[in-house]
Amino acid sequence: MNDIQCIMSTYGRNPVAFTRGEGTRLWDEEGREYLDFLAGIGVNNLGHCPPKVTAAIREQAGRLIHTSNLYRIPLQEKLARRLTDTCFADQAFFCNSGAEANEAAIKLTRKFMRDHGHPSRFEIITAVHGFHGRTMATLSATAQEKVQRGFEPLVPGFRYVAFNDPSAVEKAISPYTAGILVEPIQGESGVRLPDDGYLESLRAIADQHGLLLILDEVQTGMGRTGKFWCHQWSSVTPDIMTVAKGLASGVPMGACLATSRVAASFSPGTHASTFGGNPLACAAALATLEVLLDDGVLAGVPDLGQYLRDKLDGLKGHQAMIHATRGRGLMAAVELKGGTEEVAAMCLNRGLLLSCQMGTTLRMLPPLTITRDEIDQGVAILDSVLSDLF
Ligand SMILES: *Cc1c(COP(=O)(O)O)cnc(C)c1O
């Protein structure tokens, strides 16, 4: 076996390896330069190796990496304060990934219902084509056959309804229902935006039936859509929210945030994570928040997002293979009439990273620090690829 065969083949990998990154740019083993319009799948929101985050990680690594949650972690307390100051939440639980954040949210929802006299309410309504992770509970929450196939029996307690259809949620409610879990914009299924008012309707339904509203902001959070949290484009606040991808600029970290009323159902011993919220990850996340909020990165996202989408719309004007473009902030998609895999592969060959979702959609999640110049360059590469292929 060669080295690559020593890795379980869970990924269809492109035959390229990056050795260095700076801002929106990456360099591979041969020294070729790439424009990264995917940012580690929405992780490197401040670009590659943002100096302040890199410095914070270096400094913390030399001081204290890990201690465990048996002891107080002041950096974790500071991070919880900083995160809850950005939104509805009062308290945070820290873990290491999006799936774990959703696991925490699912457990918290069940426990909350138990604690409030509804032991039979354990079911969570989720949306078709949503994505919530790959652990047994989160893949069971993920209403996509390709994620679930082969891993049955699924964890009980999830009901699937059409996305963007509040009446479908209402119809799915039973005496067993505990909560509603959705992404404010579906990321993995190709940047699918619901209609205005969708979250408001879900909030009203949840309130009317005594359910918890859980928002999965793992991909849409941390400034991706131009607000710190995507749900802040609406007038709604959830009871629980999950975050991960961009939280610590690539140091693995997730969090489950909740109101104190709901969070009170987690008491000592009910949930835990060995690594969750260790000093290294917290230092990275605190530096990330600082750059995002205090250095004005977030403030620039709406204009940059509009600029990118205008460019993509311009492309649609003369590229007949483009069926539609959509997005919010710097979360964008180009839906093609065909050949999407080939387009993504040829873009990579020409030095542009983006992803192909659901076989039909090119997804872009560039660093929030991207420049207009870099947007021009990336869109020009896509333009040339579309011209040469079709
Ligand atoms: C990526 C993602 C997850 C899973 O996160 P992992 O860190 O891979 O476990 C969950 N929900 C959404 C919306 C995501 O985009």
From TrEMBL:
Pyridoxal 5'-phosphate binds at G98, A99, F131, D216, E217, V218, Q219, T274. PROSITE patterns: AA_TRANSFER_CLASS_3. Keywords: Amino-acid biosynthesis, Aminotransferase, Arginine biosynthesis, Cytoplasm, Pyridoxal phosphate, Transferase. NCBIfam families: argD (TIGR00707), PRK01278.1 (NF002325). This is Acetylornithine aminotransferase. InterPro entries: AcOrn/SuccOrn_fam, Aminotrans_3, Aminotrans_3_PPA_site, Class-III_PLP-dep_AT, PyrdxlP-dep_Trfase, PyrdxlP-dep_Trfase_major, PyrdxlP-dep_Trfase_small. Its EC number is 2.6.1.11. The modification N6-(pyridoxal phosphate)lysine is found at K245. Gene3D superfamilies: Aspartate Aminotransferase, domain 1, Type I PLP-dependent aspartate aminotransferase-like (Major domain). Pfam families: Aminotran_3. One of its GO terms (molecular function) is N2-acetyl-L-ornithine:2-oxoglutarate 5-aminotransferase activity. It is an enzyme of class 2 (transferase). Its main location: cytoplasm. Pathway: Amino-acid biosynthesis; L-arginine biosynthesis; N(2)-acetyl-L-ornithine from L-glutamate: step 4/4. Belongs to the class-III pyridoxal-phosphate-dependent aminotransferase family. ArgD subfamily. May also have succinyldiaminopimelate aminotransferase activity, thus carrying out the corresponding step in lysine biosynthesis. Binds 1 pyridoxal phosphate per subunit. N(2)-acetyl-L-ornithine binds at R134, S273. It is found in: Cytoplasm. It comes from the Bacteria. Its cofactor is pyridoxal 5'-phosphate. It catalyses: N(2)-acetyl-L-ornithine + 2-oxoglutarate = N-acetyl-L-glutamate 5-semialdehyde + L-glutamate. Homodimer. The keyword Lyase does not apply.
